[in-house]
Amino acid sequence: MADMSTLLLQALGPWRNAKAWHVALSGGLDSTVLLHLLVQLRKTHSLPPITAVHVHHGLQAAADAWPAHCQALCKGLGVPLQVIAVQVQAGASVERAARDARYQAFAAISGAGEVLLLGQHRDDQAETLLFRLLRGAGVGGLAGMPRQRRLGAGHLCRPLLDVSRAQLESYARTQGLSWIEDPSNTQTDFSRNFLRHEVLPILARRWPQAAASMARSAAHCAEAQGLLDELAQQDLHAAGSTSEFAWLGLPSLELTAIASLSPARQRNALRHWLSAFTSLPDTDHWAGWDALRDARIDAQPVWKLADGELHRAGGRIWWLAGEWLHQPIAPVLWPCPDQALALPGNGRVHFVGDIPDGPLQVSYRLGGEVMAQAQRGHRDLKRLLNERGVPLFARGRLPLLYRNEQLLAVANLPGLDSSPCGHWKLQWLPTSSDQGLS
């Protein structure tokens, strides 16, 4: 116990001042041992409050008895237990759907300054590395499960990654612990179970330290990925100049700064940047980046990804997601122009200064609009937008202020957003791009 306790305390050193530790308790061997170890340690060490969380997936009849098992375990250890029932979405992979539902539940209960503790061990890490290797993962994937990362408002930590399953089982038997054996863990039609029961034992017979060696390789890959992340941050900083259209509220980068890098550094920087917004493309799909980067200057290239689109405009690349991918509803009457007007799917507009006489409404471009300009007469709106270099993807969302059939103003564009005498201005706060963040 002393050795495992020491490893556990070392791994949890950065989190000793957390507001709370939540143990993800499946009732299996690893989470049972983790919870028992923590309860023993708090007898002699000052630790944050400990609670347990059991997620009930409802995927098999046997699982209905597991919450009661976990409740009995926690009662004996004097640890509060929270049971969360989740709905697993139907899909091609039950394993992945269950995992997604489980982690959504974990994220929901992780408050600021709190840590969720998972019991995954060294053998799990080796299994993860082998599984991802067979899927053709890169350095980031081969880094395996991270020891810690953000989760909801708090953090996730895996403090047992340096401990083998054999050590956990030896401890459990010595302490007289009982645990749940999930029947699905023996079904080798699941890829991970096949690796666990069929492949890894063969490797261990030939190389007894196979699991430890693979876990060590995962750690090397994690370190290498850290260096790649540092390089990406440097490259993204160089491409992070402020755009004159920063008020659009959209993430963007200077294209020239990215395109001047080697192809490998381009992909590395973009992976780092895009990972905050979307699932990353596979190797073959990166041809979409090449096409966007190399398109003609007068082209309007778009790279469609899982959760949004990358557009090129004005010498920059822009990330669009959520409501930015849909044309907003128009027209919208503005019965109380002294108050901000909410635009369905397109943020809100308001006046600065005096309020123009009505009746007023907001609409969007259809083509052929003209606008009266002081000392210039009536000018085609398309030409006015061209003169100001407004990105094409934004033109259909720019709020246009009308009084009857007269176009009075275009929000946020100097010279077009105000009355001829400058008594008022039309300001637009676009839809936040936060819905594009993962």
UniProtKB/TrEMBL annotation:
Keywords: ATP-binding, Cytoplasm, Ligase, Nucleotide-binding, tRNA processing. Its EC number is 6.3.4.19. It catalyses: cytidine(34) in tRNA(Ile2) + L-lysine + ATP = lysidine(34) in tRNA(Ile2) + AMP + diphosphate + H(+). It is found in: Cytoplasm. The N-terminal region contains the highly conserved SGGXDS motif, predicted to be a P-loop motif involved in ATP binding. Residues 360-428 form the Lysidine-tRNA(Ile) synthetase C-terminal domain. CDD domains: TilS_N. ATP binds at S26, G27, G28, L29, D30, S31. This is tRNA(Ile)-lysidine synthase. The keyword Transport does not apply. Ligates lysine onto the cytidine present at position 34 of the AUA codon-specific tRNA(Ile) that contains the anticodon CAU, in an ATP-dependent manner. Cytidine is converted to lysidine, thus changing the amino acid specificity of the tRNA from methionine to isoleucine. Pfam families: ATP_bind_3, TilS, TilS_C.
